[in-house]
Structure formats: structure tokens, C-alpha cells
Specification:
The complex is a heterodimer of chains A (about 350) and B (about 375).
Chain A: H1 4-21, E1 40-45, H2 54-62, E2 89-94, E3 100-101, E4 107-113, H3 122-126, E5 132-134, E6 141-143, H4 153-157, E7 164-165, E8 174-175, H5 181-184, H6 191-195, E9 201-205, H7 206-218, E10 224-227, H8 239-243, E11 253-256, E12 275-278, H9 296-308, H10 312-328
Helix pairs in contact in A: 1-10
Chain B: H1 17-39, H2 41-44, H3 55-67, H4 70-80, H5 87-111, H6 132-158, H7 162-192, H8 210-236, H9 243-270, H10 282-300, H11 304-307, H12 310-334, H13 352-375
Helix pairs in contact in B: 1-13, 3-5, 3-12, 3-13, 4-5, 4-7, 4-8, 5-6, 5-13, 6-7, 7-8, 8-9, 8-12, 10-12
The chains are: A alpha+beta (about 350), B mainly alpha (about 375).
Chain lengths: ~350, ~375
């Protein structure tokens, strides 16, 4: 006989998992991760960029990527966006007569599109096979094609639209900037910063880059200031540490201070990114999303670990279900026995 | 459970029109897949980096597995809530689930860009327990295995393996408990997969309680699919509709559905996201379409009299299935926007070839259902019903 008590028992066992799904904020809460102290990154200053695309060409060469043709003559590399074969691109904002550089109205501006190397990357949290990883020291978000199953969850998860898949190949990989980590061993830093003629893209430790960005924001627009190019040496860098990197150290020159918005993009977005950006034109208008300081990876993992941490909850629910099912399952052959 | 009816094969010819149609559709799918595996995903799909997931993921896997929740929903009713009189519905529902999930698992392989590495997801040195997709993959794999075990008495009966069947039935309760737990875990996690996409998903579908919404809706869809299946099977095999079972089950379905609707709207109001439903946007339109589908069953089968009408039960089942489709398509495709709308220009609508594969997958399910119900004891023996 089906009793009310049986029914309630079922409700208890069956409903436990469902009920707890509504309570994600518990001990398993996972905070938004922060940048590692020695983390490497880039500072892109849109007001210094002249849109020459030297960094785009250098990136292609450094990563052994083919040209992408969108013009009829197929004479030179003309990617329309970053892709599985283009990891870095300079995009352009245009408005009205386009008379003034770095002006939102009747002006234009450039913006670099490449991996932001988030402190708490969505792609790393999403990847089911640890193919996307964040280096604990350098903070570089790397990709391992030998582990990758090609599910493209990273492509869907990234708020910057950075990891991209090679749909044109039966063995397509994910393509994204890895900060030229394959060249670090030989003393080469990111190719885009190495070739940038104006220092618009600067390589260094993110903490130093952040200090440099804040220095620029504090200056008066139009004034002259010294701007480094290539690599920004760390504060109080020893000659031994400097010798790790190739290329001339002092490439600084005098440039005019841009009419900056008082915001370093990447300082706090999603817990911060290791690539930082300065712009005179609204960041959303040059293609950078407005993101909260809390990362979605933290929200997602908090929910997951609340429900499945140590498998405590599933095992408890399973025990309840097994106990109830054992009482209620009647083998087909014994059914005549008047069970109901 | 004295009113338990033994199941029996339906019998009849295997070569008839529905089987032929299914075979042609499956052949078309195989042709498309041949091109896909030789030339890559771009050769046959409209996938792009703004919409990296198309209908092969959202329909074949996310929706397909929700449609396959009939077995889970009915088994929970029978074995957990001890409503033994629903027993005749268990086997047909479990069969549909078995194929739904098995094919969802196979369907994933078509979509994986680096499919030869698929085993990494279950391999300890590669697995990432922080990934929602990892949890979904492990649970679905385990559930497919558990379902085959749950269903194996059917084969044992047919092949006269009486001893083995008795042995299995002694421990079957363990698998039934697992078979209830695992779908709870992965059906909720299929919703959690949206969370890491953050603000790229419209606030109408991006919520920390999305796992609860997907779980509740999956249970409701399970009952909806059983209504649909029972009506179609009865009509196709010219059998009597089990109205005496479907009527009270539809009532249970409405109960869970009411909870779902309350949680859905409560969440929107609490998060202050309800305003998005009132904006003149495509997202708002699809939100109301989805809501209409979930509300319709209350009007269609709200009264006991209406629930005795097979046509109404069928339409209510279809409405629920549509609601389930929309909830998932809305979250993963309509309400999804790469780079939060600052990255313009991405569009996705499935190609003919993508649709051929999705249709072929469902045809494979129907074909397998026909063959198994005609040759194995799945449906209740005709005449034994009240």
C-alpha cells in the first residue's frame, strides 16, 4: 500500500539535491582569483598606437600562422577579426568625419584585440580536460592541443571572444595568444611588444605595467613625457634579471600625454587581467565589455563545489534514494504476493 | 503492485513505411557526417566563433537528453515515491531514455573538433573537476551505463536468462537509486554550463539558480515526453491509451510545473531581471513564447475531465516539450551574445546539413524504439490493461 509516509520519504530523498541547488553561497564559495605577483602581461595605450599593424604581422610570424585573405587579389593578410589563425589584431573605431584621433565624436581610435590573460580565466574553468591552463608564476593562459577535445566551451565562455576554433580543418585546434611563452626561453618577449614602434604595446610584469598606466593617467594631457618601448623593466631590476631578456633596454622616447579616460581597463575586470588597456574613447565603444569585479568562473565553481564538493551531497542523496528504492522495488516474480 | 501487467513484444513486421523513412533519414545523416569528418566542422555547419555551439550541442545533447528524462521521471514516481501502479509506463519510458542518452553521447562525438581525444574527459590526468562540462560528461556516461543495466531484464526475459535476471533484480534497487541521482546531477549541470559564460547570457536565462530550473524542467519534460510517447505509441500500434495512468501522472506533472513556474518568476523578480522581459527585443519575445508553452498545460489539462481526453494529454505533452526546447535554445543561442554585444556581427542559423544530422539522430531513436518494442517485452501486454 502506498502510504503518505512513503510519499514524504520520497520527497525528502528526492528533493534534497534540488533544494540544495538553490543555496550556492556556502562553505564551498570560491573567491575570484587574483593576479600572481610575478605575472607577465602587456600594456596597450590606444593614444600611442598609430595602427600600423606591425604587431599583427609579428604575431603571425611568431606563431607560425598563415595569412587570411578576405580581399579578391589575395596579395596580403587581411583578417577581419581574430580567428583560429590570427591571435592579435588592431581594430579601429570610427565616428563621423574621423578628423581627430582619440576623439569619440568625429574621431577615430585603435584598439588591440588579443588574449587578456585573466587573473581568473573563464576558459580555464570551462575546459573539461585541463587543456587551458594558467601558469601559477607567469600567469600566462596557455593552450595544449594534445589534451584538447575540441568542445569549444572555452570559445563560448570567454567574455572577450578570444579562444577561437579552426573550423576549416578536420583536425582544427583552438587558437589564442599565449604571450609568446614559447619564445621566453630564448629571451624573446611577446612579439607584438617587441616590434611596436611607438611603445603602444609594452611588455612587462603586470604590476609594473599597472604603475606605468597610473603614472600616465596622473599626467596632464598634452604635456610631454618619457614613454618606454618594448619591455618595461621591473622596479629596481637587477642586471642579471634584465639579462634574461634580449633586445636593447632603453628605447624610451618623448611623447605627448593622451587625453585618457581615468580608467585602467583590466585592473579590476573579472578580478583583473594581466593585459591592461588605456584609451581616450569609451571602452565599450572600442570593443571591450563592461565586466564586474567578480569573475563568472568563481560563480560557476562555487555552484559546482557546493553541490559536488567531496561528493558529500551526491553520496548522501544516493544513500537516501537507495534506502527508499530498496523498500519500493519489487522483483517481477514476487509481485503476486500482495505487496500493494 | 498486484495490478502489475506483464510486458510483451508488440510483434508485427519490421519492414514498414516508418522504418523505411527512418532508414533514409539515417543514411542522409551518415552522408553528412562523412563530409564533416573528412573536411572539418566548417564544411557542413554554420558554426562560427560567435556561436561555437549550434544545434548539434544544444538540440542533440542538451535538449535530446532532457527529452530522454521520461525514464528518470517515471522511475522516480514508481520507485522513490512508491507509486507502483505507474509500473507499466516504466519500461517504454526507460527505453526512450536509453536511446536518447546513448545517442546524445554519440552525438557529442560529431561535434567535438578533436574527437579522437574524447577519452581525456574521463581520464584522471586530464580531467578538470572545476569544469561543469566535466561533471556533465562523467554523469551522462555513468547514467548511460546504469540505464543499460536497468533495462537489461528486458533482454534477459526475451532470451530466457532467468537465473541471471533473478540475481540482477536482487541488486536492481542500487541501480534504480543511481539512475535517479545521476540525471538529477547532470540535468541541473547542463544549466550550470551557462554560468561561466557570465553576462554574455541574457539575464532572463543567466541566474545562479539555473541548475534548479534545468532540473525541475527536465522532470516536467520527462512526464511531457511520456504523455507524447504513450499517445504516439498507442496510435501507431493501434493500442488502447493508458488514460487511467496518464491522467494522474499529468496531475503530478502540473504540480512540478507549478513549482518550476514559481521558481522561474520568483528568481526573475528577486534578481530584478524581470524588466528584460518587458523590453521590445527578440529575447523578450522568445521569453514569452517559452513562458506560454509552460503555462499552456494548465489550460489544456487543468481539470480531471480534460486529463481524460487523450488529445488534450498529447497537446499538453507537446507544449511542455516546446517549453523545454525554448528554455534551452533561449539560454544557449537566442539569449547568448559573444562579448556582450560589443563584438558585433555574429549570426547563427543551422545549415541544412546540420539539420539533416539532428533529424537523423531522432530518426535513429525512433527506429530503435520500433525494433525493440516489436521484438522485446517493453510495452504492457495488450488486454491486460484495465
Amino acid at each position: 500500500m502506498t502510504t503518505r509516509r512513503d510519499f514524504l520519504r520520497g520527497c525528502l530523498a528526492g528533493g534534497a539535491a534540488a533544494a540544495t541547488a538553490a543555496l550556492p553561497e556556502t562553505a564551498a564559495a570560491r573567491d575570484t582569483l587574483q593576479r600572481p605577483p610575478e605575472g607577465l602581461g602587456l600594456l596597450y595605450d590606444a593614444t600611442l598606437c598609430v595602427g600600423c599593424q606591425a604587431c599583427v604581422a609579428a604575431c603571425k610570424r611568431a606563431n607560425d600562422n598563415p595569412a587570411e585573405f578576405t580581399a579578391m587579389d589575395k596579395l596580403w593578410d587581411t583578417p577581419l577579426d581574430t580567428s583560429g589563425h590570427t591571435f592579435n589584431l588592431i581594430k579601429m573605431y570610427r565616428n563621423g568625419t574621423m578628423e581627430t584621433k582619440d576623439s569619440e565624436l568625429n574621431g577615430f581610435s585603435f584598439m588591440k584585440t588579443s588574449c587578456m590573460h585573466c587573473a581568473d580565466p573563464s576558459c580555464v574553468s570551462a575546459c573539461p580536460v585541463s587543456s587551458m591552463q594558467k601558469d601559477p608564476v607567469t600567469g600566462v593562459v596557455s593552450y595544449d592541443p594534445d589534451a584538447c577535445i575540441g568542445c569549444r566551451y572555452c570559445v563560448a565562455a570567454c567574455p572577450f571572444g578570444i579562444p577561437k576554433y579552426q573550423y576549416d580543418s578536420p583536425t582544427g585546434k583552438i587558437g589564442k595568444c599565449e604571450l609568446c611563452r614559447h619564445r621566453h626561453e630564448d629571451g624573446h618577449y611577446s612579439a607584438c611588444a617587441e616590434v611596436c614602434p611607438t611603445g603602444a604595446t609594452l611588455f612587462g610584469r603586470t604590476e609594473d605595467l599597472l604603475a606605468e598606466a597610473k603614472r600616465r593617467l596622473a599626467l596632464k594631457p598634452g604635456d610631454w613625457t618619457t614613454v618606454p618601448r618594448g619591455r618595461l623593466p621591473a622596479e629596481g631590476e637587477t642586471p642579471e634579471a634584465a639579462a634574461k631578456w634580449k633586445g636593447p633596454v632603453d628605447q624610451a622616447y618623448q611623447a605627448q600625454v593622451g587625453n585618457y579616460l581615468q580608467h585602467v581597463y583590466g585592473e579590476t575586470e573579472y578580478g583583473g587581467t594581466q593585459v591592461l588597456k588605456l584609451s581616450a574613447v569609451n571602452f565599450q565603444k572600442v570593443g571591450l565589455p563592461d565586466l564586474p569585479p567578480k569573475s563568472s568562473a568563481a560563480t560557476s565553481e562555487t555552484i559546482q563545489h557546493t553541490l559536488y564538493g567531496g561528493l558529500v551531497m551526491p553520496i548522501a542523496v544516493l544513500a537516501g534514494l537507495t534506502w527508499v528504492a530498496r523498500r519500493n522495488v519489487v522483483p517481477d516474480d514476487e509481485e503476486k504476493g500482495g505487496q500493494s | 503492485m498486484s495490478a502489475h501487467h506483464p510486458a510483451a513484444p508488440v510483434g508485427g513486421k519490421l519492414f514498414n513505411l516508418p522504418v523505411m523513412i527512418c532508414s533514409v533519414l539515417i543514411a542522409a545523416m551518415v552522408a553528412v557526417l562523412f563530409v564533416r569528418f573528412i573536411f572539418g566542422l566548417g564544411a557542413v555547419t554554420n558554426l562560427n566563433d560567435g556561436y561555437p555551439w549550434g544545434i548539434w550541442v544544444v538540440v542533440d545533447v542538451v535538449i535530446g537528453s532532457a527529452f530522454a528524462c521520461g525514464g528518470f521521471s517515471v522511475a522516480m514516481l514508481v520507485y522513490i515515491f512508491n507509486r507502483g501502479h505507474y509500473h507499466p509506463l516504466v519500461r517504454p519510458a526507460l527505453l526512450a531514455s536509453l536511446f536518447g542518452y546513448t545517442l546524445a553521447g554519440v552525438g557529442v562525438l560529431f561535434d567535438l573538433g578533436r574527437w579522437w581525444n574524447f577519452w581525456h574527459i574521463l581520464w584522471p590526468t586530464y580531467a578538470n573537476p572545476n569544469s561543469v562540462m566535466f561533471e556533465v560528461a562523467v554523469c551522462i556516461s555513468a547514467y548511460v551505463l546504469v540505464m543499460w543495466i536497468e533495462f537489461s531484464p528486458v533482454f534477459m526475459e526475451q532470451w530466457g536468462l532467468k537465473v541471471q535476471k533473478q540475481k540482477l533484480e536482487k541488486v536492481l534497487f542500487v541501480f534504480i537509486a543511481l539512475g535517479t541521482l545521476l540525471p538529477m546531477m547532470h540535468q541541473s549541470s547542463l544549466g550550470t554550463m551557462l554560468v561561466v559564460m557570465g553576462p554574455q547570457v541574457n539575464p532572463l536565462w543567466q541566474t545562479p539558480i539555473v541548475p534548479l530550473l534545468y532540473l525541475l524542467s527536465a522532470i516536467v519534460i520527462g512526464y511531457g515526453v511520456v504523455l507524447f510517447e504513450s499517445c504516439v505509441a498507442a496510435s501507431a500500434y493501434r493500442r488502447r491509451i493508458e488514460t487511467h495512468l496518464l491522467q494522474p501522472m499529468a496531475k503530478v506533472m502540473l504540480g512540478v510545473l507549478a513549482v518550476f513556474v514559481l521558481v522561474r518568476f520568483g528568481d526573475l523578480v528577486v534578481r530584478g531581471a524581470f524588466g528584460h522581459a518587458l523590453s521590445p527585443s527578440l529575447e523578450a519575445f522568445f521569453f514569452w513564447l517559452e513562458t506560454a508553452c509552460f503555462a499552456a498545460p494548465f489550460l489544456i489539462v487543468g481539470t480531471p475531465v480534460a486529463r481524460r481526453n487523450p488529445a488534450r494529454l498529447f497537446v499538453a505533452g507537446v507544449a511542455i516539450m516546446m517549453g523545454g526546447i525554448l528554455l534551452r535554445i533561449n539560454g544557449f543561442l537566442i539569449g547568448y551574445d559573444t562579448g556582450l554585444g560589443v563584438d558585433y556581427g555574429w549570426n547563427y542559423f543551422p545549415s541544412i546539413a546540420e539539420m539533416v544530422v539532428t533529424i537523423g539522430m531522432f530518426a535513429a531513436e525512433v527506429l530503435a524504439y520500433i525494433v525493440i518494442t516489436r521484438r522485446f517485452p517493453v510495452l504492457a501486454r495488450e488486454g491486460a490493461a484495465h
